[in-house]
Write a structure and sequence with these properties.
By secondary structure, this protein is an alpha/beta fold. The chain has 22 helices and 20 strands. The radius of gyration is 31 Å and the shape is globular.
């Protein structure tokens, strides 16, 4: 039985239909990705399917009794709640009882508490919870909180953006949903958290419907792509790579069909406009058919145009952009940057990789001379014109009109040597002329990012600092932005958790290694990932060699002494002895597998032809490292017993 059925759905805001008699069905076990242009109505559709938004027409059928989790793009939370209270808040009437039980349990640990009153209240709560069979809910809440590495007693207001996203996912999973609806689940998560979420969603077996523009995430997780395009839903089985090939053919066929239709309509228009002689022989049926053709052409929605991106690199900076020598930076007891040195030159495209809170923004500010280092020296180049893209959009005034954001006090912008009217320039970024005077607060998340890009590119800059520019941008705009940055002659500093975007743009990577250590690598994210896999392999091989060396260095008892003394009784059981005999073969098998996989991972073509296989190999290599260390430790333990 399907989980969801959407039938003949219509929804419009203003004169543009977001859903135009659309149909959709979601079956158990599917992992469906909903994609489409910014502003096409994806989030509105997801809200309607979740039951928190309404349609203008049509119906949404949900399987009776289905448990559903829904995670908004920017989930709202009461900042005064604890993490535990926020997680159980989605459990209906039971949530208040569980939250109070959790608070009473903690209060009993205080030496000054009124234990008698607390115990009495706990007894009442236990009875109420047992009546609702709620203990399984509490166990599930504690399990997901632990799984998402959250502190159950922390206040929601103290959490970072990434932690709040984890909290929203934990809240949705705490009810053990049959169906999970996710709106941009990777926003605010770092790369490690995104990869962890991929594994979690695949392993859980939960039916998924999610919105994302992360192409690696799409390829890894989804089993079907559904595109919302001009009010209709187009379904393509398979992952994003398979969809791209099918979509290209669909657009080609549509273009050919539209061209034939337009040619036929033009011929009929010529016929109807012929002179008196032609009008005498008019066929009434042909006239009626022409009127129908005109109605069909008027109703047809042509595909929205592409964003027109252009970037003025301004005057060239000096060849040297920045040189750091043994730079360190601390905040209190925490060292964010430790003894870091690098030399960055004009034209470098540098990606910064690291978990949330690692200090990527701090390192950027040190490189650009905006922050004073505690130790070491920073030398800046000459003629630097720096432009910033801020992921939190703090540069945007909510009440300002779009034209004032782009060109305050002027009707024109100058890109290179070309002067352009601000209305036309906004049109390049897909903002209709009638929206040019609209306030910023009326824009969606993706539209705000497009506006920030328009503002950024309206000014010449030879150094671009892009902090999460890909959030909320649709895939087509992402690909255009990638192409623009690839051809940009200036210097780029890119902070992003979009692995495909990093691979397609940057030429070198600065990665956080933990404890304030940063290292520089050639290439993008995939190159860095392969370096890490090779390093783990080398460390495991070294650990294996060290263990064997320690075993070989054990002194043997002298022959005379061995003859004089009776042999000590054997301490190993039969089972342990058999296990010890089998260990060398097991270790050798793992090392052979490790060698084969590493050779496969070293092939650069793998990342283009089979990116999913590369990810699987990296995961397996990490597990082999753990298994090898465990076997070596067991070997030493058994030898010590014998």
């Amino acid at each position: 039985m399907p989980h969801l059925i959407l039938s003949d759905a219509s929804l419009a805001f203003g004169h543009v239909p977001l859903l135009d008699h659309a149909d959709f069905q979601l079956d158990p076990g599917e992992r469906v990705a909903l994609i489409g242009r910014n502003g096409c109505g994806k989030s509105s559709l997801l809200r309607a399917l979740a039951g928190v938004g309404a349609l203008d027409d049509g119906t949404v059928w949900r399987q009776p009794g289905i448990r559903m989790g829904y995670v908004l793009q920017e989930p709202p939370f009461d900042p005064e709640l604890s993490v535990f209270e926020a997680v159980v808040a989605g459990m209906g009437e039971t949530s208040a009882l569980l939250a109070e039980y959790h608070a009473v349990s903690h209060a009993l640990g205080d030496a000054d508490a009124d234990h008698e009153t607390l115990l009495a209240r706990m007894h009442e709560l236990q009875g109420a919870l047992e009546a609702r069979d709620a203990w399984s809910f509490e166990a599930q809440a504690e399990k997901v909180i632990q799984r998402f590495s959250l502190d159950p007693d922390a206040r929601v207001g103290s959490l970072s953006g990434g932690q709040k996203k984890r909290l929203a996912l934990a809240q949705a999973l705490a009810v053990s949903p049959d169906l999970l609806l996710l709106d941009e689940p990777t926003n605010h998560l770092d790369v490690a958290a995104i990869e962890w979420l991929e594994e979690l969603l695949i392993a859980s077996g939960t039916t998924l419907l999610f919105i994302t523009h992360d192409r690696r995430f799409l390829d890894r997780v989804c089993t079907r792509i559904v595109e919302l395009d001009r009010g209709r839903l187009l379904s393509c089985p398979g992952n994003f790579t398979e969809y791209q090939a099918k979509k290209a053919q669909i657009l080609h066929d549509e273009s050919v069909q539209n061209a034939k239709f337009d040619k036929f309509l033009a011929q009929e228009e010529v016929w109807i406009r012929k002179g008196v002689e032609a009008r005498r022989t008019r066929n009434e049926g042909r006239v009626l058919r022409l009127e129908q053709l005109r109605r069909e052409r008027a109703a047809r929605r042509d595909r929205q145009g592409k964003v027109e991106l252009a970037l003025d690199a301004g005057d060239k900076s000096g060849k040297l952009v920045a040189e750091l020598e043994h730079v360190s930076k601390r905040f209190g007891d925490k060292t964010v940057v430790r003894d870091f040195s690098c030399r960055l030159q004009r034209g470098d495209k540098i990606g910064l990789i690291g978990p949330n809170g690692a200090g990527k923004t701090t390192l950027l500010r040190l490189i650009l001379g905006e922050l004073q280092a505690d130790e070491g020296s920073v030398r800046l180049g000459t003629k630097l014109q720096v432009a910033y893209f801020d992921q939190f959009r703090t540069q945007l005034d909510e009440e300002a009109a779009l034209v004032d954001v782009i060109s305050p006090g002027s009707d024109f912008v100058e890109i290179g040597n070309e002067k352009k009217h601000v209305i036309g320039y906004l049109g390049d970024f897909l903002f209709a002329p009638q929206r040019a005077r609209s306030p910023v607060k009326s824009l969606s998340g993706g539209e705000r990012n497009r506006l920030l890009l328009a503002r950024l590119f309206a000014r010449p800059a030879n150094v671009l600092v892009l902090d999460e520019p890909t959030n909320d941008l649709d895939i087509e705009t992402l690909e255009l932005l990638e192409e623009l940055l690839q051809n940009y002659s200036g210097t780029i500093f890119l902070v992003s958790h979009d692995r495909a975007f990093l691979d397609n743009v940057v030429t070198q990577t600065i990665a956080a290694e933990g404890d304030g250590v940063w290292r520089e690598y050639a290439g993008g994210y995939s190159d860095w990932a392969s370096y890490q896999a090779q390093r783990r392999k080398d460390e495991a091989a070294q650990a294996s060699a060290d263990a064997k060396a320690r075993s070989a260095q054990r002194p043997a008892a002298p022959a005379a002494q061995a003859a004089a003394k009776p042999a000590p009784p054997r301490k190993l059981s039969f089972k342990d002895a058999r296990e010890l005999e089998a260990l060398p073969a097991s270790i050798a098998a793992l090392e052979d597998e490790q060698k084969t996989l590493s050779a496969r991972l070293a092939d650069p073509a793998l990342y283009q032809s089979a990116p999913q296989e590369a990810q699987d190999i990296s995961t397996r290599l990490a597990r082999i490292d753990d298994e090898l260390l465990a076997l070596l430790e067991r070997w030493e333990a058994l030898e010590a017993k014998g």
